[in-house]
Design a protein that fits this description.
alpha/beta; Aspartate Aminotransferase, domain 2; Aspartate Aminotransferase, domain 1; 2 domains; 7-stranded mixed beta sheet; 3-stranded antiparallel beta sheet; 14 helices; 43% helix; globular
């Protein structure tokens, strides 16, 4: 049986989410219909919205259901940019960090290519962290021209947590909406939307035990935003289309489990992480890029002289499933932009793997990885790849 160590890409759905979705699926009804079945579906949808809002420190009216993190990020960046630009034509600058997920990088670049936006990319240090002083300098010089800021809460590749409250405070000081892609963080570290000072935040259910294809944009009521889709006026007229009631119920149930069990899960995942770090510490040429103060279940390692894709396939042949980085760029033979932004050279960046644990992983999984890791590295080096172990 395979050992799944790619929970940062997608997690197993929890039984509570399956039960909530099954119950919703068994009951027909469009939540916009006025008859009893419609009202019942609407009640399930709104109770799910209320539960998600409560667990994330938001108001129910802040929660807009979407098809996942990518749609939420696109709605936040494009929607806020267009609304702010319409209010004031000077507001062309879109400020992001160099380590954003492509769900933020690509729409930001699209705005630059197609809608005359000026893209500003903030640098990060060797850990992948944005220095608030860099954002302060940008706003001091160009606040009147900035439409929107987007900086992720936690990095999906190396697990670095950003100083979101400090960054959001700067944005608030200059009255500029700040969005955060919190997809990698929610369900794994404490997240409070209101306390953070953010104006918008993206959520994806499948990262914390919920279903794939369901997410939300948490958006303040006073934040200007234009819809990407026009239709029936659902979700504050910002995301038209019949809502996925079962998906919303599943997301709410999974988030409740993740938040209620966060302390226990954090301790468990931290133990597995420490076990793996102990193994990696004994491998010559292995460099750990993740930090103990980052996401609790993520270990990112560069194996000097090895090609990450080769290691990935060799491990997969031994029934160990991990990742070279974001699943959204899997199969693309290029160095991670995250690692390059952190100052790593291309050869080292391409020789890196991400191991990400979930609540179902056990100490035996780490032992099994440790048993095959030396052999896999030896085979990768023997294949004629650059460098020595």
């Amino acid at each position: 049986m395979s050992v799944y160590l790619d929970n940062a890409a997608s997690t197993a759905i929890v039984p509570e989410a399956v039960a909530a979705m099954t119950d919703a699926w068994r009951r027909p009804g469009n939540p916009m219909s006025l008859h009893d079945a419609g009202r019942r579906a609407r009640r399930t949808l709104e109770e799910s919205r209320e539960s998600i809002a409560r667990l994330l420190g938001a108001r129910p009216s802040h929660v807009l259901f979407t098809a996942g993190g990518t749609e939420s990020d696109n709605l936040a960046l494009k929607g806020i940019y267009r609304a702010r630009r319409a209010q004031d034509g000077r507001r062309r600058r879109v400020v992001i960090s160099a380590v954003e997920h492509h769900a933020v990088l690509d729409p930001a670049q699209w705005l630059a290519d197609h809608e005359d936006a000026e893209l500003v990319v903030l640098p990060v240090d060797a850990t992948g962290r944005v220095d608030p002083a860099d954002l302060a300098a940008e706003l001091e010089d160009h606040a009147a021209e900035v439409a929107v800021i987007s900086i992720m809460w936690a990095n999906n590749e190396v697990g670095t947590l950003q100083p979101i409250a400090d960054l959001a405070a700067l944005a608030r000081e200059y009255d500029i909406p700040m969005h955060s892609d919190a997809v990698a963080a929610i369900g794994h570290v404490p997240v409070d939307f209101t306390a953070s000072g953010l104006c918008a935040m993206s959520v994806a259910a499948h990262k914390f035990g919920g279903p794939q294809g369901v997410g939300a944009l948490i958006l303040g009521r006073d934040v200007p935003c234009q819809p990407l889709l026009n239709g029936g006026g659902h979700e504050r007229d910002l995301r038209s289309g019949t809502q996925d009631v079962a998906g919303a119920a599943g997301m709410a149930a999974a988030l409740r489990v993740a938040v209620d069990r966060m302390d226990a899960h954090t301790a468990h995942l931290g133990g597995l992480r420490d076990d793996l770090l102990g193994i990696v510490d004994g491998i010559d040429g292995a460099v750990v890029n993740s930090r103990p103060d980052g996401l609790p279940g993520l270990v990112h390692v560069t194996f000097t002289g090895c090609e990450g894709d080769s290691l990935l396939m060799l491990l997969d042949a031994r029934d160990i499933e991990c990742s070279t980085g974001s699943a959204c760029t899997a199969g693309v033979a290029s160095a991670s932009h995250v690692l390059l932004a952190m100052g790593m050279d291309r050869a080292a960046a391409r020789g890196s793997l991400r191991f990400s644990f979930g609540p179902d992983n056990t100490a035996a999984d780490v032992v099994r990885l440790g048993v095959v890791l030396d052999e896999v590295i030896d085979r990768a080096l023997a294949a004629g790849l650059t460098g020595v172990r």
